[in-house]
Input
Amino acid sequence: MRSRALIGTAALAGSAVIGYAAVVERNWFALRRYDVPVLPPGATPLRMLHISDAHLTPGRHRLMSWIRSLAALDPDVVVNTGDSISHPQAVQPFLEALGPLLDRPGAFVYGSNDLYSPVLKNPTRYLWRTSALEHRRGAPDLPWADLGAGLEAAGWVNANNRRGRIKAGNLDIEVAGVHDSHIDLDHYEEIAGPADPAADLRLGVLHSPEPAIMDSFVADGYDLLLAGHTHGGQVCLPGIGTLVTNCGIDRPRARGLHRHPAELTMAGRADGADGSERQAWLHVSAGLGTSPYAPFRLCCRPEATLLTLVPRIR
Ligand SMILES: [Fe+2]
Output
């Protein structure tokens, strides 16, 4: 009798946690803010909005209206690190959710979920492997090109294996990015080479924060790297934090503002061509959404981030 009661209590508690993760926290959007000392001395601070991993489906009205509300932050520039859509009819709703943000300068890369529609899978598989092999299903079936065309029509830089230039505020930003390494579409060799030392900021953009690619950006002189993909682990535990990153980055850097390499004294650090040590700032977004087939977040609220770029500390 007593064990029956215990099982019943555990089942009730489990249902409550699942309900909270699926209904409450998944829609409990957070705006993170960080100051990043990455600009030249004397430069005017720049407000950079970083969004990622919306995984939008047309029915997610709360998510769309929250994205739309971000325009009130008055960012100088917007960067989207991919996995924007998860449905064939999600491009137009995503562009409409961005709304006035499309009037700002911007840059974007794709994530694998912009190309391939989600499929039902065991959500616990990330505990023992990444999803790198799951999207190799032949031709992409989502309208990634329409998504890119919509963003480019607004003037945003398509940074998928490309370099470009953004004028934001009073600053000249060199931007370079790679397509998603998770599905082997990254071609760093197409953007390789020293970043322009005359630019006010050298920005690297990638969906999945793979250390080897970030090493290349740092070696080429990029100052700030933005990535998404990890969802911050999506399901975290109090006192433990992120359980899985679904890529090569370490768990402590699965979300938030960090450095890359994490430590200059670590083996494998990136050295500048002049022999000096280099270390970039790295922001990994925990993302705005989830796969429609894993519709929950626990101790890892969906988020967007306002990075205020300020002059370097000398
Ligand atoms: Fe994602």
